[in-house]
Design a protein that fits this description.
Distance between the termini: 19 Å
Number of helices: 0
Number of strands: 9
Oligomer: single chain
Shape: globular
Helix content: under 10%
Order of helices and strands: EEEEEEEEE
Largest sheet: 5 strands, mixed, barrel
Length: about 130
Amino acid sequence: MVITGRLTADANVAELKDDRKVVNFSIAINDRYKTKAGEQKEVTNYVSCAYWLNTTVVQWLKKGALVELYGRIGVDAYVNTDGNAVGRLNFHTNNIKLLATPKRNGGAMEETEVVTQDSNGNGDEKDDLPF
C-alpha cells in the first residue's frame, strides 16, 4: 500500500522493553471531493505510522515534511485505563520517500532530493529525478 501525506509533528524514537527501537510519527492526508449538490468538501485523515528498520531516518522526519510511505495497515487493540476496549489503525512502514521538507525559517516547503530507506536496511538512496 502507498500513502502520501505531511507529518503532523517531528518523528520520535521509542525504545521497547526488549531493546528494539521504533520510529513513530503521524501524517495528515487531505482528500477533496464534490458532493451531489456540487459543493467542494475537504477531509483530513490522520494516520499513525511505525518504522522499524532504521532509526536514523528520524533526522529527516520533521513536522510539515511531505512523505510517500510504502507498507501495510495493521490494527492495534488494547484496554485503556478506564477498562474500555480501544482500537486504532497503524501504518507499518517499510519504505519512506521524503518528497519535500519545510524551510526552517517558517517559509514555504522546499523540494528536496528523494531519500528512501529500503526494507533491507541498505541505507539512504538519493535520486534527483523530478518525478
